[in-house]
Specification:
The protein has 755 residues and is mainly beta. The radius of gyration is 26 Å and the shape is globular. It has 5 helices and 45 strands. It folds into 2 domains: 2-102, Immunoglobulins (Immunoglobulin-like); 230-753, Maltoporin, Chain A. The strands form 9 sheets. The protein has a 22-stranded antiparallel barrel. The chain has a 5-stranded mixed β-sheet with strand order 10-15-16-13-14. It has a 4-stranded antiparallel β-sheet with strand order 3-2-5-6, with no helix packed on it.
Length: 755
């Protein structure tokens, strides 16, 4: 990392001297409230086309400065792409000293997104299904963790093992819960091959969240098999330092406090923040706490060179009651000759301590070029402790199922990435890059030493080309990956979008879309090398792969204020990794007492998504979506007495925890004096298993409805309230783990300083 920091320093010194003194053009980008918009991409195009496209990103004060452009042309056009807003264009004359561009809240199809192409683009041209949560929506929802927000996005199915802090997984388009790439401030926080726990991923100070559905391994490598979730932290933007703080409380002993100090002074901006959340939960051993600390600091070293440093640290502690109540049915087990309901585990707990950091150098030079150099480091420390076990917990076969353990999983990922962007013309754009990452980890159980360790080195190179040829938009790219363990692989992707009909006032444009992509995912480190008495490592595991294609259309309505999207998706998964037990005595262990991961040769997931987005009124936004998903194992290993397997994965069976029917809705009002939202997640019956022999083979359907709102008492003080599971549904998202019933939080927010 010292070598990396030194390289950044030398490159910065060199580039800071590359300047040209001439007439300058200054562009300031502001939002509808008049606040500066940082990080917006500003493209300057000469009307006479004698000058190639010039590109700058706005500073924390919302400024983009083009110093040597004014002498080359008499007039220009400006195109502003600010993520979460609509694309804006404006004319600027040669003698304009400062042009202010106000971006507007986007209509359904106009929202500028970044994740689908790694560069700002209007969502209708992104070649993928993308949904966003803006800072205003996140403030309304006030989520404790990412699962409280993502569950209400189209196409997302969230399964949480119980209450707050329980392992919360995401299923998209029939893929595994491990098939989601999750990026926070440019750093991947999902360990390859492992399920990312959205229930312990805090969203404190999140400025925006983007959710892309579909295979995206071409741009993001391993894990981006069915979705990418990306989160950005707020940037300070006010000349006067702004202190924000607040607190709230609710039922089940819930308490939350937070504070941030942010601002921007000339070329320097900063945001330092902290958050503490505590809850007793509902029932035995359901307490959860999380502390979050972070910083986002930037410096404009010159008009075309900027440096940004980000850090987030989270430390959460969760009670683990285990599975004990199934869809309202409590199985009876024989304990000391007496039949009684299966009790929760009163003593088991887990802790997750994670730290991410990144250093990013961005260079906008020469004409049409942008370069981004990023060094990153991610530390993941997970511990799960059950020191005594619980002899009262008996499985469906009458055997004890709760044993002492002290498991730990320590992973470190460090690396470097370069991304280059070049706009050759207004109608074409290239994105390319190189990434190197070293992943190493230690896995073990303190009660069963010794621990085992593993390491991998991965190098990736990628290229993507975007074309706009009249009504046709084309995105094509590929990624080459070299892994020190699994060798070489390549993953291509192509996406086509055609404006079939321009339409009029009512039917305001019809777009057809098609994409084809492949994806890959490495096995988790622990799956291939961990050595424990109750688990057998499988170094022969193959990487998982997918072939994905989708076809759909978008119909814009009422002058583009509404958009109806429909997509058919078809995902073929190869070498899917599942978990099974020994079917006969193995190394002296009786059948069913040892576990191992193995590859399932082939499975299929296909279905359709329908989404309607629009504005019921100027500031009243509605998104409603329905998803149908059909899944099936097409070719599974034969379950014989001599191997590790699980009959759940036999050919013809559906994939677990994927509902055929699911729907979401979100209604948000984002005013200046008050705001409110109504969000619903509706999930149908889905196949599942208790894995303990009780014969439970499904999870019942449920509906979860959340409410939220805030009111500005004055410009400095606001009050808010949030209600989760407002209908007081009693349900299991994962069988055996009762979800939290109706719960609320109410509090106050304060602001000192700022503008």
């Amino acid at each position: 990392m010292r070598l990396l920091a030194g390289s950044f320093f030398l490159l910065t010194i060199f580039l800071s001297f590359v300047s040209a003194a001439s007439a300058e053009i200054r562009i300031k980008v502001i939002d509808p409230q008049g606040s500066a918009v940082a990080g917006a991409q500003v493209r300057l195009l000469a009307n006479d086309k004698s000058l190639p496209t010039l590109i700058q990103n706005t500073s924390a004060e919302g400024l983009a400065v083009f110093r040597d452009a004014g002498s080359k042309s008499n007039s220009y056009r400006v195109r502003v792409l600010a993520a979460g807003f609509a694309v804006e264009t404006a004319d600027v004359a040669k003698n304009d000293e400062l042009l202010t561009v106000k971006v507007r809240l986007a209509t359904a199809a106009e929202t500028v997104v970044v994740t689908a192409t790694r560069t700002p683009v209007a969502s209708q041209a992104a070649g993928a299904d993308v949904n966003t949560l803006t800072s205003g929506q996140l403030e309304l929802m006030h989520p404790v963790a990412a699962d409280d927000a993502i569950r209400f996005l189209p196409g997302a199915v969230v399964n949480t093992s119980g209450q707050r802090g329980g392992i919360s997984s995401l299923f998209v388009r029939g893929g595994e819960s491990t098939y989601n790439k999750v990026i926070v401030d440019g750093v991947a926080v999902d360990n390859p091959g492992e399920t990312i726990d959205f229930g312990t991923l805090p969203l404190g100070q999140a400025d925006r969240l983007e959710f892309v559905r579909g295979a995206q391994s071409t741009l993001y490598g391993s894990d981006a098999m069915t979705s990418v979730v990306q989160v950005w932290t707020r940037t300070g933007s006010t000349r006067v330092p702004e202190l924000r703080f607040g607190a709230d409380g609710g039922n089940f002993g819930t308490a939350n406090g937070y504070a941030s100090l942010a601002g921007a002074d000339g070329r320097f901006d900063y945001n330092f923040f902290g958050d503490q959340f505590n809850s007793n939960g509902q029932g035995i051993n359901n307490a959860y706490s999380d502390s979050l600390e972070g910083a986002n600091v930037g410096a404009a070293l010159s008009d075309s060179v900027s440096l940004r440093i980000r850090m987030r640290h989270s430390n959460s502690h969760t009670g683990v009651p285990g599975e004990w109540s199934f869809n309202g049915y409590d199985p009876l087990v024989l304990v000391n000759g007496v039949l009684q309901p299966l009790p929760p585990d009163p003593s088991e707990w887990s802790q997750l301590n994670s730290l991410l950091g990144s250093v990013e150098l961005a260079v906008a030079s020469p004409s049409g070029w942008q370069h981004r150099f990023t060094g990153f480091d991610y530390l993941y420390r997970y511990t799960e402790v059950n020191l005594n076990g619980d002899p009262a917990r008996i499985d469906g076969y009458g055997f004890p199922s709760d044993y002492p353990s002290h498991q730990y999983d320590h992973i470190n990922r460090v690396g470097f990435e370069y991304q280059g962007d070049y706009s050759e013309r207004a109608w074409t754009h290239s994105t390319f890059g190189y990434r190197i990452e070293n992943e190493n980890g230690v896995v073990g159980d303190l009660l069963y030493p010794p621990s085992t360790s593993g390491q991998r080195l991965t190098q990736d190179a990628y290229l993507q080309q975007q074309f706009t040829l009249g009504r046709l938009s084309v995105i094509a790219g590929g990624r080459f990956v070299h892994n020190s363990v699994f060798g070489n692989t390549g993953v291509p992707r192509v996406a086509l979008t055609l404006l079939a009909f321009r339409g009029g006032e009512l039917f305001s444009g019809t777009r057809l879309r098609f994409s084809y992509a492949t994806g890959f995912m490495e096995p988790a480190l622990y799956q291939t090398f961990a050595s424990l008495p109750y688990y057998v490592a499988n170094p022969a595991l193959l990487p998982e792969r997918t072939r994905a294609f989708e076809a759909g259309f978008q119909q814009k309505l009422f002058a583009g204020r509404w958009a109806l999207d429909a997509t058919y998706f078809n995902n073929l998964f190869h070498d899917q990794i599942e978990y099974g037990t020994n079917q006969s005595t193995y190394q002296g262990y009786p059948a069913g007492t040892l576990g191992q991961f193995f590859n399932v040769q082939q499975s299929l997931a296909h279905g359709a998504e329908v989404q309607l987005q629009g504005a019921l009124w100027k500031k009243l936004l509605l998104t409603a979506a329905y998803t149908y998903t059909s899944t099936q194992y097409l070719q599974a290993p034969l379950c014989t007495a001599a191997n590790f397997c699980n009959p759940l994965y036999d050919t013809g069976n559906p994939l677990l925890r994927r509902p055929k029917h699911s729907a979401t809705t979100m209604l948000s009002y984002l005013g200046t004096r008050w705001g409110a939202n109504l969000a619903g997640s509706f999930v149908g019956r889905r196949p599942d298993s208790d894995f303990e022999g009780f014969g439970i083979n499904h999870a019942a359907g449920y509906a979860r409805v959340d409410l939220g709102g805030w009111y500005a008492i004055n410009t400095r003080v606001s009050a808010y309230v949030n209600v989760s599971n407002a209908l007081n549904e009693h349900y299991n998202e994962v069988v055996g783990y009762p979800a939290l019933t109706a719960n609320f939080r109410a509090g106050m927010r304060f602001r000192i300083g700022g503008e």
